[in-house]
Design a protein that fits this description.
This protein has 8 helices and 6 strands, in the order ααβααβααβαβββα. With 191 residues, it is of the alpha+beta class. It has a single domain, classed as NADH Oxidase (3-Layer(aba) Sandwich). The strands form 2 sheets. The protein has a 4-stranded antiparallel beta sheet, sandwiched between helices. A two-stranded antiparallel ribbon has the order 5-6. Bound molecules: flavin mononucleotide (FMN).
Length: 191
């Protein structure tokens, strides 16, 4: 599969098959995260792999997104802003971009391995910090729920079924990309 196909066929997967994810697959996914670009190559990310339903049950007391509880594996993505601040101005926020890039690598690698994932940012950071013993100087940016999946499956959430494969339209290129000056639409289409 070429890269554009890989990018376009990835979609958020929220219903998983109850099957463990092998350590070597997780290692490849983490490796993809580790090879993201970062400002000043400071690599201000840390990952905590969780495969423990009892811990996962603590993470989302308010929204109860079932995929957080049911995911065979979760990668908690932490930012280490002090890595960035060693080199750049205090409070520079580029670490947020670095960690987001790493998270996208994680999603794409997961998809390339035939597994599904969803990037989640709505959960209780306080609960995750406490359950996993994460020190204060690391910021909890997000988590990635992942696992094997059936593309025809779905999960009920707030009275609605969220299917694994659903339409997720994108804004047209000529609305979001400009040629030479802002407001002058980019008109060429990809081959
Ligand atoms: C920064 C960010 C935060 C997100 N937070 C959540 C979340 O808390 N819960 C969830 O189910 N999906 C979450 N998503 C997934 C988005 O809903 C999803 O990427 C979007 O609807 C586009 O669908 P696609 O990933 O299938 O292309 C998040 C995605 C991103 C990039």
């Amino acid at each position: 599969m070429d890269l554009l196909d890989l990018i376009k066929t990835r979609s958020s997967i929220r219903t998983f098959v109850d099957k463990p994810v092998e350590d070597d697959k997780i290692a490849q996914i983490l490796e993809a995260g580790r090879w993201a670009p970062a400002g000043g190559n400071k690599q201000p990310w840390r990952f905590v792999v969780v495969r423990d339903k009892k811990k996962q049950a603590e993470f989302d007391p308010r929204f109860h997104q079932p995929w957080i509880l049911n995911a065979p594996a979760i990668i908690i993505v932490l930012a280490a802003p002090y890595d960035t601040w060693e080199k750049y101005d205090e409070l520079d926020q580029m670490y947020i971009q670095d960690v987001a890039t790493s998270t996208q690598n994680i999603l794409l690698m997961t998809h390339a391995l035939g597994l599904g994932a969803v990037w989640v940012t709505t959960f209780s950071r306080k609960a995750v910090r406490k359950t996993l013993g994460i020190p204060k100087e690391f910021f909890i940016q997000g988590l990635v729920c992942l696992g094997y999946y059936d593309k025809n499956a779905g999960t009920e959430y707030h009275g609605e079924i969220i299917p694994n494969k659903k339409d997720r339209p994108r804004r047209p290129l000529n609305e979001i990309a400009f040629n030479g000056e802002f407001g002058k639409p980019w008109t060429a289409t990809p081959e």
